[in-house]
Amino acid sequence: MSRYHSYLKSATAILAAYKGEEPFTSFIKKYFSQHKKFGSKDRRQVSHLCYCYFRLGKALPGMPVEERILTGLYLCSHQPDEILQELKPEWNESVALDFSAKQQLIDNSFSIAGIFPWQNELSDTIDYEAFILSLFEQPDLFLRLRPGKEKGVKQKLHKAGIHFQTISDSCIALSNSSKLDELIALNREAVVQDFSSQRVGEFMELVRRRPSDEFRVWDCCAASGGKSIMAKDILGDIDLMVSDVRESILHNLEKRFQQAGIKNYESFVADLSKPLHVSLSTFNLIIADVPCTGSGTWGRTPEQMHYFDENKIEEYAALQKKIIATAITQLEPGGYLLYITCSVFKKENEEAIDFIKGNFQLQLVKMELLKGYDKKADTMFAALLQQLL
Same domain for 269 and 359? Predict the structure, then answer.
């Protein structure tokens, strides 16, 4: 058996063992640690084959797994590939064709609608075909350079010979294979943060405050704290409160805040789908980066698309409404709500804003679907609303 057949067999075995119950990156890392026979190139090749399989989403469900892996590899490849050359040489010769031409060579029943069959659920401004095609390419790694650190970070990258693309004064894009841990003080000098997530800062900049005022911010679904760090950088010396439903994630946030130099903040565990049982002051700004389907990030985590159940859209939309209804009780008159998802579904995005405007005394300041599918980035949604006085 050639090593290419061996790669294909290994990928098939791994996919059979994986049930979608944890991120695939975690699963395959544990798998390789238990199976020491794989060298670094083997791990890279087998992992790539698995991800190519997932990038087909819901398409070609009846196709044998090995054939499906090779189909995904063909669609993900733009240059000749050694595995295709060995196992599908006729495809390897046509690997530079555009997606539509490749479709015709694969299977008459294959279409992009089969990959992502939820087109009717998408936010209206999304280019369906462009979005689908983006799912066959891994998004870039983005850094947000913290204030005053921009020049120093770029100098370190230049010195280390790491290529990067400047997106804005504070944003750079790098290859996902870039090794940064020992080169840059992550979180202190630069934050790993997707380009669209960084664009949420444009909404924070619309929040009006006087420098002399005490400005209270609650990041109510804080996760690892990336939005809180950005709020500190944009809004200055804020009185910060963070919460999350998971105690473990707040421990990770604490470590990240230490690295970022954020010391003055309070935190608590809260399930905001239920009424609050703690006494809080009111806030000038509530950041609600709510739990969602994550459909705008499936270019990074295509296994989630493969296992996705459409009923989850309604489940998340209902949860988001409960969280917002609880959080808004802590918004002071004239205060702002910043609603964020990493979803492409209108029920989680525009329809959520319709719900807020229809049930609470808030007016819309700005709303935008932050398209990343044409920039090798995630797609997100953000809306800033202000409490009426």
Answer: yes
